[in-house]
Write a structure and sequence with these properties.
The radius of gyration is 20 Å and the shape is elongated. By secondary structure, the protein is of the alpha/beta class. The strands form two sheets. A six-stranded parallel sheet has the order 2-1-3-4-5-11, with helices on both faces. It has a five-stranded mixed sheet with strand order 7-8-6-9-10, with helices on one face. Strand 1, helix 1 and strand 2 form a beta-alpha-beta unit. The protein folds into two domains: 127 residues, NAD(P)-binding Rossmann-like Domain (Rossmann fold, 3-Layer(aba) Sandwich); 106 residues, Dihydrodipicolinate Reductase, domain 2 (2-Layer Sandwich), CATH 3.30.360.10. It is built from eight helices and eleven strands. Helices cover 36% and strands 24% of the residues. Bound molecules: nicotinamide-adenine-dinucleotide. Nicotinamide-adenine-dinucleotide binds next to helix 1.
């Protein structure tokens, strides 16, 4: 179905990647706007809002979409837990795909990790390794945190099971711990490996991002999917049929 996009935050790194992906995917862009532009007017000529801008813009984006009953794809991150709770209530009044990572590969990695963790019991030691560029300010990455959450859920463990790196006389590894290791260096966009190691074999699931176009293409896939859906908040697992 041909849909007309409204790209909000169009001058930013993701905005530019989205415009490139829209060209690649032959999706018409009705409006490409940034801070200071007229969001309500731009909405009138578009079928779906794709927002990768700033967390301070999210409320206005959702209010405008609700007022005109237009679907939303929300990629902006950085909201506090409290902000997010209030925004989710608003987002649920239109069809809205909200995801902290729109990469199709990473979302498949989430599903594969859940499957592997359920098939491979506690005899398989689970460890997560991530690497990002030298400028990244937080660790572990949000994506690694989600991978760990999935493993903990499948193993019925809580955050006390996590081991952030190891140093000194740690003793033998127990079957109820899950390791997480954050490497930093150079210009690495984002690598994640989930490892399940037993006596005699090891399974490794790895995703490597090298271009933010993956997030843009995933978001536009979500935009095509969300038009015509019932109001509610969806994520990329819904878009990809991985639930
Ligand atoms: P950026 O700083 O390069 O671009 C942000 C753009 O938004 C800028 O052009 C800025 O002028 C504009 N902007 C700021 N306030 C605005 C407003 N009120 N209305 C409209 N536009 C406004 O940032 P970026 O790297 O493009 O990232 C944008 C957001 O997307 C961030 O929150 C980032 O974390 C998130 N992101 C999400 C994913 C994902 O997969 N969900 C992937 C990459 C980035």
């Amino acid at each position: 179905m041909a849909i007309t996009l409204l790209i909000n935050g169009a001058k930013g790194r993701m905005g530019q990647a989205l415009l490139g992906a829209a060209r690649e995917m032959a999706l018409p862009v009705g409006a490409a706007i940034d801070a200071g532009d007229d969001l309500a007017a731009a909405l009138a000529t578009s079928d779906v809002v794709v927002d990768f801008s700033a967390p301070s813009a999210t409320r206005a984006v959702l209010e405008a979409a609700v007022a005109r009953q237009k679907p939303v794809v929300l990629g902006t991150t950085g909201h506090s837990a409290e902000e997010k709770k209030a925004l989710l209530a608003l987002a649920g009044r239109v069809p809205c795909v909200w995801a902290g990572n729109f990469s199709v590969g990473v979302n498949l990695l989430f599903a594969l990790t859940r499957h592997a963790a359920s098939v491979l019991g506690s005899d398989y030691d689970a460890e997560v390794v991530e690497m990002h560029h030298r400028f990244k300010k937080d660790a572990p990455s949000g994506t690694a945190a989600r991978l760990l959450e999935i493993i903990l859920e499948e193993r019925k463990l809580d955050a006390r099971a996590l081991r952030h790196g190891r140093e000194g006389l740690t003793g033998e590894r127990t079957s109820t711990e899950v390791g997480i290791h954050a490497l930093r260096g150079g210009d690495v966009v984002g690598d994640h490996t989930v490892m399940f190691a037993a006596l005699g074999e090891r399974l490794e699931l790895t995703h490597k991002a090298s271009d933010r176009g993956i997030f843009a293409r995933g978001a536009l896939r979500a935009a095509q999917w969300v038009v015509g859906k019932q109001p509610g908040v969806y994520d990329m697992q819904d878009v990809l049929g991985l639930k």
